[in-house]
Amino acid sequence: MTMRVVPSGPAGSQTVRDHNQRLVLAALAEAREGASRAQLSASTGLTRATVGTLVEDLISDGLVIESSPLRGSRGRPGSPVSLNPDGPAGLGIEINVDYLASCVIDLTGHVRATRIEVVDNRARDPRAVIAAAVALAARVRAEAGLPLAGVGVALAGLVDDRGVLRRAPNLGWRDVDVVSALKVEAHDWIADSSLRVENEANLAALAELWYGERPWLRDFVQLSGEIGIGAGLVLRGQLFRGARGHAGELGHVIVDPRGPECHCGARGCLEQLAGKEALLAAAGVSSLEWLRADATAGKARALEALEHAGVAIGRALLSALNVIDLDVVVLGGVYAGLARWLIPAVQSELSRRVSSPWNPATVLASSLGDDAAVRGAAGLVVHDILSN
Amino acid sequence: MTMRVVPSGPAGSQTVRDHNQRLVLAALAEAREGASRAQLSASTGLTRATVGTLVEDLISDGLVIESSPLRGSRGRPGSPVSLNPDGPAGLGIEINVDYLASCVIDLTGHVRATRIEVVDNRARDPRAVIAAAVALAARVRAEAGLPLAGVGVALAGLVDDRGVLRRAPNLGWRDVDVVSALKVEAHDWIADSSLRVENEANLAALAELWYGERPWLRDFVQLSGEIGIGAGLVLRGQLFRGARGHAGELGHVIVDPRGPECHCGARGCLEQLAGKEALLAAAGVSSLEWLRADATAGKARALEALEHAGVAIGRALLSALNVIDLDVVVLGGVYAGLARWLIPAVQSELSRRVSSPWNPATVLASSLGDDAAVRGAAGLVVHDILSN
Question: Among A112, A152, A270, B89, who pairs with A316 as Cys (CB 3.0-4.6 Å)?
Answer without folding.
Answer: A270
